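Workshop exercise sheet. Pairs work together: one partner reads the sequence aloud, the other fills in the structure field after running the prediction. Swap roles for the next sheet.
Pair: D.N. / O.F.
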Amino acid sequence: MTLFVKLFLAHLVGDFLLQPNLWVLHKEKHKIKSKYVYLHVLIHFLLILLLLWDLSYWGVALLIAVSHYVIDLLKLYTSPLFKHGNIPFFIDQLLHVLVLYICAYYGNFWEHTITLSERIDWQLVAGAVFVSFPTAIIMGKLLERMSAQIELDHESLPNAGKYIGIIERLFVFLFILLGKWEAIGLLITAKSVFRFNDLKESNNRKLTEYILIGTLTSFGIAILTGLVCTGL
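Structure field:
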């Protein structure tokens, strides 16, 4: 685990702390001809050796550096194919971490992976997944007739309400698992404060009722899910 943590730390420092935005823009424009592609890879190589402080790992550092070079080039050349620019970024990061994981546990890769999977509480994973997008869809169906009667006099970010609800439910789910019921009250209070100006300015009773019903239903589903997962 220590080896993986050090490799991951080197990745974080190299990819986020020691890579200015100027380098990123230059790489996107010039791709394989950009000098910063090679400087970036060299920095990763040196960071790994520095954090491990053991020259016997030079082969691992070289393998990670070369894979980093290949993965970064793939991202640079395939990014225009994606409609959303954040998708290549997350795929790129996932591949980098996967390489680090393989290098850290190459001696007992399958055994460690199986042991790690056996430690996962799949009931909690299922609960967390349920309170995210599935519950968002359920909420949309439950409140569909009500939302059709709401007239908004302001614009909102696309799907902002859905994502806010997902984040809220995940927090509530986590608080239930930790037994921090008081934190749920603080979360409701915080949301009420942020919503106060909108409700005050709109002076719309239907909107107020819609928000209350949606909030209580959303929190209720998250609480019930958390109780089921904790066996209470």
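Discussion prompt: The chain has twelve helices and no strands. What would you look at next?
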